[in-house]
Amino acid sequence: KGKKRTHSSDSDADTDEAPATKQHRGRPKGSSNFSGPDITQLLVCTERVLPVGGKGWKEVTASYNKWAVESNRPERDTRSLESKFKLLVKAKKPTGHGVCPSEVKDAKRIDRAINEKVVIRPLDDSDIGALSSDDSIEVLNPKVAKVRTAVARRAPTPPLRRKSRTNAPDVMSKLVSSFDPEAQQALQEQRAQHSFQTTQLLALNQQLRDANATAESLRNRLAEVERARDRAELKLELYGPAPLAGSGSGHPGKSRAQYVADEYPDLVRRGGKIRCETIYPEGGGCVEWITDTEDSDKENFDPSSSSSSSFLPSFGSSFGSSGLD
């Protein structure tokens, strides 16, 4: 038992030697509170400047710190001086027969002077500028607004609307009609008819699209046939009346090219080919070069071809101006 007590006393001694460190809050070390002369000098500087905003309190701080250096007192910042002054202004009147401190009275008096400075400020002629004489100033009588008294009136209340109550027989009849097999069958037939009409409408739309595509294809083919017809008519106009070479009718001894040159003197002939230009009424044109099979390019003919086909001219098939032009 004695050893246990000795051990416990040793542990107590160890705990006493190493106490836990605690952080204390408050003013920093070395700072001092406002004394009587400090408060008096603060009130003197504030009354001299009458600060309204931050600039004024900076002037108060500069004046106070100058005095503090000369009087060997700690310097204060702007926030500390402003807080101390406002604390004095907001001090309440002591209860009972207490006497209000003189610094509190002075602080309240200076605060009233600051408020008067904010509301009323003296005007300087240099700031206003040159003004006209007082005779030119027209004094207008201010309009006094009429005071209207409020009259209490009772607001009309809308009449109460009673909710309509559904009769029980009506509800039962609706339920019976909704579960009626005939009504359900009629509803199904109506839905089937609507679906059939929708399908038929889609099929008609598809047929219409196919018909439009067929009509467009036929129009294109018709245009191609018309162009082929125009080319055939042109060939007929150029070579229809021309006689065949070696035949007894017409002009004997003349070739096809000579006959065409005599009949159509305005045609352009170049390298054994005749230029033929056609202009269509709807716009555009066609230039063709016609080659005479008797006078030029004889080496290009096939000997196995018939004699009648050797007299047929070759035509260009391209539309527009040719590169030989």
TrEMBL record:
Q: Which residues form a coiled coil?
A: 201-235
Keyword Coiled coil part of the UniProt annotation: yes
Regions of compositional bias (Low complexity) in chain numbering: 303-325
Region of interest: Disordered = 1-38, 287-325
Pfam families linked: DUF6818 (PF20681)
Q: Which InterPro entries match?
A: DUF6818
Against PANTHER family, the record matches this protein to: MYB-LIKE DOMAIN-CONTAINING PROTEIN (PTHR34409:SF1), SET DOMAIN-CONTAINING PROTEIN (PTHR34409)
* Protein name as catalogued: DUF6818 domain-containing protein
Q: Which organism is the protein's source?
A: Mycena albidolilacea
Question: What is the phylogenetic placement of the source species in the record?
Answer: Eukaryota, Fungi, Dikarya, Basidiomycota, Agaricomycotina
